[in-house]
Amino acid sequence: MKQYVLPALLKALVMSVCFTLLCVIYGFISGNPYEITLIPEVIFFLLFFFVNFIEYLWKNRKR
């Protein structure tokens, strides 16, 4: 189980950073600055992490 935490953590980190970067780029293009507080960012990160962790556990449940 410990072997699936790090890949899920890294995948969640990449997804979270890419999502934030896309929102910032969209904010620059549209002229509406992207403003998000820390709490939603943490919630998104935790959501991505738990979804990825469950995905890794589900795919490798027979091992």
TrEMBL record:
The chain crosses the membrane at residues 12-30, 36-58. Keywords: Membrane, Transmembrane, Transmembrane helix. It comes from the Bacteria. This is Uncharacterized protein. It comes from Hungatella effluvii.
